[in-house]
Specification:
Layout (H helix, E strand, L loop, with lengths): L2 E5 L6 H10 L3 E5 L3 H10 L3 E5 L7 H11 L6 E6 L4 H10 L3 E4 L4 H10 L5
Parallel strand pairs: 1-2, 1-3, 3-4, 4-5
Helix pairs in contact: 3-4
Length: 122
Amino acid sequence: MTRCLLIDEDGRGRQYLEQMLSGLGLETSLTTGGDVALRFCNDNAPDVVMMPARAAGGAPRDFVRRLRQSGRGKPPVVFLYADTPDTEMFGQSILEGAADVLMMPCDSDLLHFKLRQAGIEL
């Protein structure tokens, strides 16, 4: 089963994203951002990480860079999700290794397509 870490700091997208991810067959764990999420990734090696573009613990590009530097084995595929566009931050995060940015609300068909596009087997 494909494992996903959903980083949700304020709870706004949690239920919506959890339902979509579970509906696509992903085993989803939930945590807050920053060091807690990095420790979770190092201990549990999720296949996918979904995180808010406006993370309170710092810029998503910094998290992606730290994740790629600290992980064991193959790093997870990272998706950002956002309510409003910030093309500069999105671009910088993708340059650091994020796979894509999902504008919310998105539907499960788009999420399924983006996961498959990033090489995640469902």
